[in-house]
Amino acid sequence: MTLKKAKSYTLIAGIALVLTAGCKSYQTVVTKADVHLPDTFINSRDTLSVAALPIKQFFSDQRLINLIDSALTNNYDMLSAMQRIEVARANLRFNASKLLPQVSIAANAGVEKYGDYTQNGVGNYDTNLSPNVSGNKRIPNPVPNYFLGFQSSWEVDLWGKLNNQKKAAFARFLATQSGYKLVVTSLTAQIANLYYQLMASDTELAIIKKNIALQENALEIVKIQKLGGRATELAVQQFQAQLLRTKGLQYTTVQQIKETENQLNFLTGKYSGTIPRDTSITAATLPLALSAGVPSQMLLNRPDIHAAELELTALNADIKAARANFLPSLNLTPYVGYNAFRAGLLFNPGSFTYGILGGLTAPLFNRKALKADYARTIAEGKIAVYNYQKAILSGFQEITNNLNGIENYRHAYQLKQQELHSLQSALSVANDLYVVGRANYLEIITAQRSVLDAELELANIKRNMLLSAVNLYQSAGGGWR
């Protein structure tokens, strides 16, 4: 081997060593979640998941179903979620296009005056003196340059960087679809919660109006008794105060109804309007199937968990792509077209030209920026792991709370019904005793207030029971099918 060849091989080896220097210290990092779910949910009676029920099977009230359908069509969060899917779809196409050669049509024109004492100036002058150069082949001074043809650039994906960028974009595209499902689930739950709140307020208003009528009647009786000397002004004022308190409750309840209607109109994309509804919360029925299923089903059903998992997949691909930035990249730049220094000769067959240039490049002086980007990507990957694990833990807790809520509110409702029955009997007895003078007016007022409060609490417990069912549906990942 000659000394010249040895030097050439040494130079090539040195360049290769520089191009790959430091790459070994940046091994591929894969961030993984450590998830250990319990085998079953507490109080879950079977493995049939409530999330598997479509909206029209879970809810039996057609007016509520119509509201949900209207919201899914007109709600601005829904419309925005659809556009986020389109943004992610476009980003996926953009990253996929990087794997293909970029081809462009080029039409270039320029002129350059070379100095007499430059390499090109002397070379062109000497060329024109050659007997082989004549006519149109003589180089003018200044020298024009015309090119018309196709130019291309292509980065060969040696280390999978571009492919990993595409994988990350695809995972994020799927995550936006899960985000859309999450909006559907959340919006369904919002509509149902407000609808049941509206029904509860209607029931409360009916209870208050009924009690106002009873209290007005009681006030008239005590006024008559005062005239007959059987009651005092103090009794009249006490009955009057109770009546005014109940009338005040009527106006606050009417305001709650109006605000709830406006919220529902907002979610359905309307400015105002009366919400069609059943006005009795006691008539509303719970869905037949209210089990949550096994915890592993939650991973498949809940859109937020699925989105977090996809974001984790995307960031693992980002980490691989960031690591590939340390490795050499191969770029090819082919071209084909017509090139001449005279415009009239541009389309002459002799002006046809083509070529290709390939080169390896690797970062040398900007490695600190690449190291920082690599470290940032790894940190974001760890955040994605924590978010994924947090979403699973949060989902498990939400399902457990709502399962317990349904059961506990059911018992509370039954006991409150019994309490109300007892209070109504007590009020009837108090009225009878008051007539014969064996009970005072304070006992009547206390009994009336207790009945009113118990009736209002009964409506609220029924509302909370229905809200727990809706929240279980949402937390188990239902509503988006």
TrEMBL record:
Query: Keyword Lipoprotein, does the record have it?
Result: yes
- From the Swiss-Prot or TrEMBL record, state where the protein is found: Cell membrane
Which InterPro entries does this one have? MdtP/NodT-like, OMP_efflux
> Mind telling me which SUPFAM superfamilies this protein's record contains?
Outer membrane efflux proteins (OEP) (SSF56954)
Recorded topology in the membrane: Lipid-anchor
Transmembrane stretches, start-end: none
Pfam families in the record, alphabetically? OEP
Q: Which UniProt keywords apply?
A: Lipoprotein, Membrane, Palmitate, Transmembrane, Transmembrane beta strand
Which family does this protein fall into? Answer: Belongs to the outer membrane factor (OMF) (TC 1.B.17) family.
User: What protein name applies here?
Assistant: TolC family protein
